Amino acid sequence: MDTQTAGTTAATHRIHPLHPLPQSPQELTPEWLTAALRAGELDVEVASLETEPFAEGAGMLSLLVRVRPQYRFGEGPETVIIKMPAPVEANRQTAINFQNYRREVLFYRDLANRTPARMPIVHYADIIGTEQFVLVMEDLAGYELGDQVIGATLEQARLAMTAMAELHAPFWNRVDDPEFDFIPYHYPSYHSEGLHQGSIAVWDNMVALAGDALPEEMADLKGRFLAAIPRLQEWITAPPRTIAQGDFRMDNLFFGHSPGQAPIAICDWQAPLRCKGAHDLAYFLSQSVPIEDRRRHERELVRLWHAGLVEGGVTHYSAEQAWEDYRRAVLVLWTYVTVIAGILDPSNDRGLAWIVEMIRRASATILDLGGIDLLAEFE
């Protein structure tokens, strides 16, 4: 475990309300940040602070701000990241509809300490209702942020498999108690219904945006795939279940290279789900790994994920079952590709680039793994 992880449990469990919650950078004050950092057991007083935009264009559902405090006394972090609701009404309403803010706050507060997977230390986390929330988090500025467009190197993909197994193993077949009810099952839930209806509504938009990136065989699947979505979603929710991060991709991964840093850290916990762990596996390998690298190494990478599960105490789950779950989960995850591509604002050049790569990679994975033949299982 890296040296920065110590104290995460205390920081995420000793939460004290500091209301009203700031909902924009203009509402942040030295007094409020002092109270928030003290809630995370830092004995400091903030005299002043400076804010700057962070990851502009990367987070659609939230606003991220880097804050640089100046301290009157005590030693605190040089910078922190503060996460608040999206300023764009449509984006904020989407997050409310999918309970993304509540899911992230409660995950950090109640569950993050149960896994050795590295994630940002949270000094303060709070939510009022479904819309007003704030997170005061460690700034992983010293880490290298993954790039979805470029995709994962083989070494980064291997690190991702290990971290993914560290997340999944502690929760394997242990997520059906009421304490997990803030995390939806993939199906049936508002999550699955949103993906199902969204896929129907925007399939044609996705095809138009994809252009040459979408093979004709995939475009022709429209009727069969849309009709099979509920059965695909039911399958990925069947046991064995764990907690899936839900958006496991390069843009949400940080890679450490310096002494004291973890090899990899996972951020953005707005979309956790209760379902098969192969959800995250398929999401990452089919969308974040360049096609030729995936073709050469996917068997190895799936075996690495499975080995991590076994090391973490998972039993009665074979390497062959992991492979077969991966093949089918890639097909399920086409709903994400469809919805994300179908609602994208094509004027965002960087967003358009990674969406086209996602379509190209995911469709190639489905075809390579015989996904069209597998679809018959769900018709």
Specify the structural class.
Answer: alpha+beta
Helical residue percent band: 40-55%
Gross geometry:
globular
What is the total domain count? Answer: 2
Mean pLDDT: 92
Please work out how many helical segments DSSP would assign. Answer: 14
What Rg is obtained from the alpha carbons, in whole angstroms? Answer: 20 Å
Q: Enter the CATH topology name of the largest domain.
A: Aminoglycoside 3'-phosphotransferase, Chain: A, domain 2
Portion in beta strands? 5-15%
SSE pattern, N- to C-terminal = HHEEEHHEEEHHHHEEEEHHHHHH
DSSP summary, beta strand count = 10
Give the N-terminus to C-terminus distance in angstroms: 45 Å
What key attributes describe this structure?
single chain, 379 residues, alpha+beta, Phosphorylase Kinase, domain 1, Aminoglycoside 3'-phosphotransferase, Chain: A, domain 2, 2 domains, 5-stranded antiparallel beta sheet, 3-stranded antiparallel beta sheet, globular
Explain what you see.
The protein is of the alpha+beta class. It has 2 domains: 3-138, Phosphorylase Kinase, domain 1; 144-378, Alpha-Beta Complex (Aminoglycoside 3'-phosphotransferase, Chain: A, domain 2), CATH 3.90.1200. The protein is 45% helix and 15% strand. It has 14 helices and 10 strands. The chain has a 5-stranded antiparallel beta sheet. The chain has a 3-stranded antiparallel beta sheet with strand order 6-8-9, covered by helices on one side. It has a two-stranded antiparallel sheet with strand order 7-10. α5 packs antiparallel against α9 (278-287). The relative contact order is 0.13. Residues 1-15 have low confidence and may be disordered.
